[in-house]
Amino acid sequence: MRMSGRTTHSTRTTRTTRATRTTIALCAVATLSLTAAACGSDDGGGGGGGNGGAEKIKETVKLPDLKGENLQVAAVWTGAEQKLFGKVLAEFEKRTGAKVEFVPTGDNVATYIGSKIEGGKPPDVAMLPQVGVLQQFADKGWVKPLSPATKKELGKNFSKGWQDLGSHKGKQYGVYYKAANKSLIWYSTKAFTDAGVGEAKTWKDFLSTAQTLADSGVEPVSVGGADGWVLTDWFENIYLSQAGPEKYDQLAKHEIKWTDPSVKKALTTLGQLFGKKQLLVGGSQGALQTEFPKSVTQTFADPSAPGAGMVFEADFVGVNITSDTKSKIGKDAKVFPFPSVDGEPPVVTGGDAAVALKDSKAAQAMLTYLASPDAAAVWAKEGSFVSPNKNLDLSFYPNSVQREIARALVGAGDDFRFDMSDQAPAAFGGTKGEGEWKALQDFLTDPKDVAGAQSALEAAAAKAYK
């Protein structure tokens, strides 16, 4: 979901100021290839098929005997994602003899986990979609450093950038099991064909395509505005492309204020979409009442009568299309990269880091397992999943669409930009009804009030970053 929290998210070292043009180009090419592959794919377009090219998962890491042990693993995932992750946990149970219970956290992961810790009953392992939360928990001593065995497995399978995202003040805490490409526009092939439009490469083209779709009788863009994290992803893609990676890094760390002219420019650009009610399904009020899953299903539920022309979000949109609609990825639903906005096409990533909340053999064994190609392969075979694990054989992905996304992610090495809101303290970037989520929802209501949005964003950021 956000990578779920998607998706997406230590930033001190991976949010480097090195140019990311090579990475951006690589990912853009890969996602363009994604569409091409989907158009003529003969190996299936969706997820959930369990038909990956590699038939058997090899046991590359030795896990301890944990018979009689019970452990809880908490994550934000629901629905199809929870079901697929359940297969990963079931394999762990099979190999160790432990009994594993999945615990849903709800969107406010930090609040849920914090309350459990303070109540003396934390889960053994939690999947944290926000770097800022991992760092806050580490400062409080709530998360446990990785064991030598887990660190060894992590070092073998992940680039330094992904290792750094899970570290804080020189200690390694997190394992990024699941990642996301949060710079994708998914579209209805019927809506596009009927309107006579194609994939947009620039923001100007995107707005023109949306208007043409509206003129053809199809509501153009489905926005899940009831989930504030969706709106942060819209802003981040525009900001990264328009302001560039160095400004993006500075704003992510609150080294520049949200009243900066670059933020004004990005919000003004976003307002070109949000400010035209005919371009949004149900207008701004309709978008505010639409949760992310519905933004997908109302677009693709009936491929013969699309409820919208386009929906923006990460590769995990595929889970909702496959599980909750009649559309087929590659036939009825296709995808193209987020358009460039006065600069390079943006590539924003997200991810979920597994951390141990109990200093136990079972918790560390789970982290070692999640750091291995073995655990990644279980979900990869089922589809709608991308792993930053560089030693996962790409043949485990069930189709060429997902292999291209994974190849681009792993090929990016250390040079990538992580979801900005997920780098922030949770009070600003990850709490329902507060901070950035609330300010951008208010902006969706009144896109003309750019100054008011900037003021609200800066006030919330200044308080949260203290």
What report would you give on this structure?
Keywords: Signal, Transport. InterPro entries: Bact_solute-bd_prot1. Residues 1-38 form the signal peptide. The protein is of the alpha/beta class and 466 residues long. It folds into two domains: 16-44 and 182-337, Periplasmic binding protein-like II (D-Maltodextrin-Binding Protein, domain 2, 3-Layer(aba) Sandwich), CATH 3.40.190.10; 70-181 and 355-417, D-Maltodextrin-Binding Protein, domain 2. The chain has 22 helices and twelve strands. It has helices at residues 2-6, 11-14, 21-40, 79-96, 109-118, 131-139, 148-157, 160-165, 189-195, 203-215, 228-243, 245-252, 261-274, 283-288, 292-300, 317-324, 361-370, 373-382, 400-411, 426-429, 435-445, 450-464, and strands at residues 70-75, 99-104, 125-128, 167-168, 171-172, 175-181, 184-188, 221-222, 310-312, 333-337, 348-356, 417-418. The strands form three sheets. Strands 1, 2, 3, 6, 11 and 12 form a six-stranded mixed sheet that branches. A four-stranded mixed sheet has the order 8-9-7-10. A hairpin with a 2-residue loop joins strand 4 and strand 5 (171-172). It is globular. The two termini are 28 Å apart.
Work out the helicity level. 40-55%
Structural class call reads alpha/beta
Distance between the termini: 28 Å
Q: What gross morphology would you assign?
A: globular
The number of strands is: 12
What is the total number of structural domains?
2
Look at the structure and give the mean pLDDT: 88
**Beta-strand residue percentage:** 5-15%
CATH domain fold name of the largest domain: D-Maltodextrin-Binding Protein, domain 2
Radius of gyration: 21 Å
CATH architecture of the largest domain: 3-Layer(aba) Sandwich
Helix run count: 22
Detail the poorly predicted runs.
1-51
Major sheet description: 6 strands, mixed
> Could you name the CATH homologous superfamily of the largest domain?
Periplasmic binding protein-like II
Return the CATH class of the largest domain.
Alpha Beta
